[in-house]
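Section 3.1: Structural characterization of target chains.
Under the original work plan, the team committed to producing a structural model for every single-chain target entering the pipeline before any wet-lab resources were allocated. The record below documents one such target. The sequence was received from the expression subgroup and is listed exactly as submitted; it comprises 368 residues.
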Amino acid sequence: MIVRSLTLDFFRNYPHFEGEFSSNVNVIWGENAQGKTNLLEGIAYLSTASSHRARYDRELIQFGVDHAFVKGEVEARDRVFTLEARLSRGARRQLFSNGVRLKTAGELAGVLNTVLFCPEDLWLIREGAAVRRKFLDSCICQLRPKYAEALAEYRRLYEHKTRILRDWEEHPSLLDTLDEFNLRMAQTGALIIHYRAHFIRRLGEVTPAIHRDFSGGREELELGYETVSTVTDPLAPARTILEQLLAHQESHRRAGMGSRQCLSRPHKDDLAGELNGLSARQFASPGQTRTAALSLKLASREIFFQETGEWPVLLLDDVLSELDGKRQEFVLKRITNGQVFITCCEEMDLSRLGSARTFHIRDGALVR
């Protein structure tokens, strides 16, 4: 997969940007707070219709402006796609592929796959479960359109159920709808758990070898899936998981009403990791957690290639400067295939990765 070109209008700090990229390595350099990360964010947005650092689309629109525009010409599956995202403060976003409006973000799946490394990801192992869920969701949404649809539906149902539990004492009639929301949440939750379990199984097959190589054979990384306690086999068919989720909901019904919170849910799932038999989150050193996080990201990239036959576009957002020489060298050796974008504060010579194109960014503009 290759991003041939990108156009931004009023996206973050870019009044306007147009750039054509190398199919190999693209180095985006400039001082801090000039817009390098925003450029990668625009590319990544076209793959998932979401941002790794913004909760709402309106945060992506430049201050004092009501609309923003992102457009990319992408080469994938032996075809050329023109992807567009039109963002507005006062209306729902609009997504287009080759001029045809998309009904859901899930329809972007398989057109442009991206894997993003940023400095925060180096602490993926040490952070709370929400960060690892976000990593899983970003990967699976790009590979499985049904997962993206189920995740969006589950989030909507969760917000509704939360309001019911919060307000039911003041408005008892709200409880009349609770069973329906429980059923629909269990149905979508079962799909989410099913897809997460299968992706984590793939991670568990690919990641250990990468981490073993990365650590010089000194460390063994094992991955596991932690989900709702009544789900005995997350790899089971979704209909089996559905029954187990309904049982968990029923056993926690009274407690949920009392606490006014959704207590039965897959939105507390976690990707667990162990290094040499010990919890990576609790016992790994800072260096070990960075190595494990990088192994996860590199593994996800390889899974994308195995699934689609094409390397996803790799976005390295100032991550090399955060690594010591050994880890830099390991990462660079493993990314010699596919298109790569690298941001840094100084111009870098990365000719060993192939022909590179360099872009100097200053104050939201390309310096010619």
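The first strand starts at residue 2 and ends at 11.
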